Amino acid sequence: MNPEQIRAVLDTGALIAYSLGDMAVGETLTEMASEESARFAVPALCLLEAHRHATSAEQHNRLGVLRQHPLFWGAPLTTDQLDILRIWHPTAGADAHAAYVLLSSPHAMVLTDRAAMYVVDLGIDTGLVNDITEKWED
Q1: Percent of the chain with pLDDT over 90
Q2: Is 82 exposed, middle or buried (0-12, 13-18, 19+ CB in 10 A)?
Q3: What is the pLDDT confidence band of residue 15, given thresholds at 50, 70 and 90?
Q4: Measured distance CA(42)–CA(111) in Å, rounded
Q5: Nearest in space to 96 (alpha carbons), one of 84, 78, 109
Q6: Distance between CA atoms of 36 and 114, rounded to whole angstroms?
Q7: Secondary structure class of 60 (helix, strand, coil)
Q8: Predicted TM-score (pTM) of this structure
Q9: What is the distance between the alpha carbons of residues 94 and 75, in angstroms, rounded to a whole number?
Q10: Please, which pLDDT band fits residue 137 given cuts at 50, 70 and 90?
Q11: What is the widest separation between alpha-carbon atoms in the chain?
């Protein structure tokens, strides 16, 4: 996968919202689909966490449908990355993997319901953080 193609990284909160039928994530992916060769990344740890939080077959099915999306890229986790994440920000959990993928992709933003964690705790520029809860309030 060419990191230049990644336009969005979906973290655990965005995946859980999507599994619950939230439209904000789906709308963002639809907007992105018009961009030639654009992809969205789903870090493996975040997908695992979202499945762990799913409480119904419907939620698991929605996550499965997302994995079949033509723009989907499952971002793997290597042992080297795991060591970096463990040291870099141990309390961010799976979302540290999302931040790592985000920082490795020069044209991406993260879709999250934990914007403050990325900006305040991890020091990521606010321009790279798309707070999906702001769309819920509209």
Answers
A1: 35
A2: middle
A3: very high
A4: 10
A5: 84
A6: 29
A7: helix
A8: 0.87
A9: 12
A10: very low
A11: 41
CA 63-92-16 angle, 5° bins = 20
A 10 A CB-CB count for 66 gives 21
Q: For residue 63, give the amino acid letter.
A: L
Residue recorded with tokens 């762990």 = 52
Q: Which two tokens stand for residue 101?
A: 């993928």
Q: What is the pLDDT of residues 30-79, one digit of tens each?
A: 888 888 889 999 998 889 989 999 999 999 999 999 999 999 999 888 88
- Provide the phi-psi class of 94: left if phi over 0, else alpha when psi is between -120 and 50, else beta: alpha
Burial (CB count <10 Å: 0-12, 13-18, 19+), residue 34 = exposed
Distance, in Å, from the CA atom of 133 to the CA atom of 26, rounded to the nearest integer, reads 13
Task: Read off the amino acid at residue 84.
Answer: I
